[in-house]
Specification:
Elements lengths: L5 H19 L5 H17 L14 E5 L2 E8 L4 E9 L5 E9 L1
Helix pairs in contact: 1-2
Length: 103
């Protein structure tokens, strides 16, 4: 049995994130979906649990252009915020364009 290479593992994790985001978002509100997608990407990239993030805050989500969002989420235990730039693809999946930590 062959082990999955790094890019295959990352693609599998991305598919899992997309599935979790779609199932976690009850409504069609793209801002809420962007928020939850950011939480999932932060968890995958940093290991910080979703539960460590502040509660959903619509003020932390900005639509930069159609289907392109900037999300800022505060993590008290990390003493800072993560900023995700996300693109909502035509198939309703989310793509992480950038992830930054802000103190």
């Amino acid at each position: 049995m062959k082990l999955a290479t790094g890019w295959k593992i990352e693609r599998m994790l991305l598919a899992l994130v997309l599935l979790l985001v779609q199932s976690a978002c009850a409504g069609p509100d793209p801002a809420a979906q962007a928020w939850h997608a950011c939480l999932m990407f932060v968890q995958i990239r940093t290991g910080l649990p979703v539960d460590d993030a502040q509660p959903y805050n619509l003020a932390g989500v900005a639509e930069l252009a159609p289907d392109r969002y900037l999300v800022k989420v505060y993590y008290p235990k990390a003493n800072g915020s993560y900023r995700c730039e996300l693109l909502r693809r035509p198939d309703d999946n989310w793509q992480l364009l950038s992830l930054d930590f802000l103190r």
